[in-house]
Backbone:
């Protein structure tokens, strides 16, 4: 591809506590086969030497240096704010989010741009790798050709909602005021991707793994559940409902069903990790949802949750699980 024909692609990389991973990430970005790239690293007051490591890596890529920005927050603001800082400072026609503990294949940007041009796409997705202690595993990102179905599947928690491993037209963000809500640092991808899909006209897919998602970082937000994580997740449901409330009712209904299943599964799975106040808040939200949102949840589960009988529900599930194991052995 000739350089003068290449659209500028901006890549945003939030940096916080990733000294172990930042060199691999930065090298994978600076060694891209595609040339017309703007890099925006956002230092969210990283407590380690991540930025020092990054600066040392930058010295090895003189041809990239004039296209690199490092923006530092005055105080730690969280992932959503770091993403917003990138969106406010990018100048490209297309944008890509890369987490600083992840990395990408050298042809990542080139292949995404090719797919965008071929399909005149507003959003391009790719397959990806999951990296664990057992090695890399290839994952297919199932993207429906029917954009509307894909959007409803994302809202309904039937398809993953991450914004890494994709490229979007910058005007989608800027023209529709799409950004994650600051201070809500879990579920920020779930806030953003449905909005991008709603306004996109065409989407496309690269059928090869180009992004490597790191599951080895135990400090990432997605590594564990806490009450704080739960509160951010619930805030995200409220944010999405507010975004889609003036659009077709099917979107709000789908969000409500997703929240009902979230509350049901998390109250059972993480009951012991929650304080009584938060537990009661979740049960109150479950009660508040209409019957249509809860229709696919077992009647007994619905009753026990609404009556705040979590101990009974937990015992019932344990007994049922044991009975199922016994029946499988008999068979």
Residues:
């Amino acid at each position: 591809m000739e350089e003068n024909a290449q659209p500028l692609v901006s890549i945003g990389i939030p940096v916080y506590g990733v000294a172990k991973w930042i060199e691999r990430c930065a090298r994978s970005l600076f060694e891209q086969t595609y040339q017309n790239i703007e890099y925006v690293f956002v230092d969210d007051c990283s407590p380690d030497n991540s930025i020092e490591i990054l600066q040392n890596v930058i010295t090895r890529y003189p041809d990239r240096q004039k296209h690199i920005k490092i923006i530092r927050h005055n105080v730690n603001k969280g992932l959503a704010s770091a993403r917003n800082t990138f969106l406010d400072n990018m100048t490209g026609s297309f944008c890509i989010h890369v987490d600083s503990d992840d990395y990408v294949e050298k042809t990542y940007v080139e292949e995404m741009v090719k797919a965008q041009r071929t399909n005149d796409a507003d959003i391009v997705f790719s397959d990806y790798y999951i990296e664990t202690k057992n090695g890399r595993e290839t994952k297919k990102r199932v993207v429906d050709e029917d954009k509307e179905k894909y959007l409803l599947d994302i809202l309904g928690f039937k398809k993953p909602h991450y914004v890494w491993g994709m490229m979007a037209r910058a005007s989608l963000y800027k023209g529709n005021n799409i950004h994650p809500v600051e201070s809500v640092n879990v579920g920020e991808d779930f806030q953003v991707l449905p909005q991008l899909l709603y306004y996109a006209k065409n989407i496309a897919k690269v059928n090869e793994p180009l992004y490597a998602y790191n599951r080895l970082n135990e400090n990432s937000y997605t590594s564990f559940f806490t009450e704080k994580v739960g509160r951010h997740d619930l805030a995200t449901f409220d944010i999405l409902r507010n975004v889609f409330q003036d659009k077709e009712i099917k979107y709000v209904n789908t969000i409500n069903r997703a929240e009902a299943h979230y509350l049901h599964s998390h109250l059972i799975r993480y009951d012991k990790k929650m304080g009584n106040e938060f537990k009661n808040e979740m049960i109150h939200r479950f009660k508040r949802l209409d019957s249509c949102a809860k229709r696919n949840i077992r009647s007994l589960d619905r009753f026990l949750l609404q009556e705040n009988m979590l101990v009974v529900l937990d015992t019932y599930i344990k007994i049922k699980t044991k009975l199922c194991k016994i029946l499988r052995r008999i068979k």
